[in-house]
Every structure is written in structure tokens, then in C-alpha cells.
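Design job #97: recover the sequence.
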């Protein structure tokens, strides 16, 4: 498991944040936040499953109390924007 700072071995001693996501059948699955992305005033997290080899990028939403929720990104234009931004990093 990589560090929550996004590196496999960095020595920062940060414990990865684990979140539980609900699948289409109503089952909860643990994922850890491997990395974070800030783009055009929107936050995203890259999460990796603790059960298998699944990973995904999710949009972070925050309620008035500061509680985070994580959403799929269904908008094709938003995905394109993320893709362009990530391609400029390399």
C-alpha cells in the first residue's frame, strides 16, 4: 500500500485514509486515498481498493459541516478537462 501522500515509500509516516464505498448491490468496500488532485477549484481523490486491484478517480464534494462525500464523474467534458490537466504534468 502506498502512503496517503501518494508515494510508495516516502518516510513521512502518514497513515493512509481509508474510506468505504457502496457498490451497485449495496455492499461496502474499503479503499484508501492514494493521491489528491485539485483542478479548477474542484477536488478529486485517486482511491485504491484494499480488496482487489481496482482503483478510480472520484470527485470530492463537501457539505456545510465539512463532511466529504465521493462521487463518480459521469460528465465526459469534465473527464476531458482532467485528462488534459494530467497530460501537462508529465
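Job complete. Output follows.
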Amino acid at each position: 500500500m502506498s502512503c496517503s501522500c501518494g508515494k510508495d515509500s516516502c518516510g513521512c509516516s502518514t497513515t493512509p485514509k481509508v474510506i468505504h464505498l457502496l457498490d451497485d448491490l449495496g455492499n461496502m468496500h474499503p479503499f484508501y486515498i492514494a493521491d489528491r488532485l485539485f483542478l479548477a477549484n474542484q477536488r478529486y481523490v485517486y482511491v485504491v481498493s484494499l480488496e482487489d486491484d481496482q482503483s478510480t478517480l472520484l470527485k470530492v464534494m463537501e457539505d456545510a459541516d465539512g463532511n466529504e462525500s465521493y462521487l463518480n464523474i459521469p460528465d465526459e467534458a469534465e473527464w476531458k478537462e482532467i485528462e488534459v490537466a494530467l497530460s501537462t504534468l508529465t
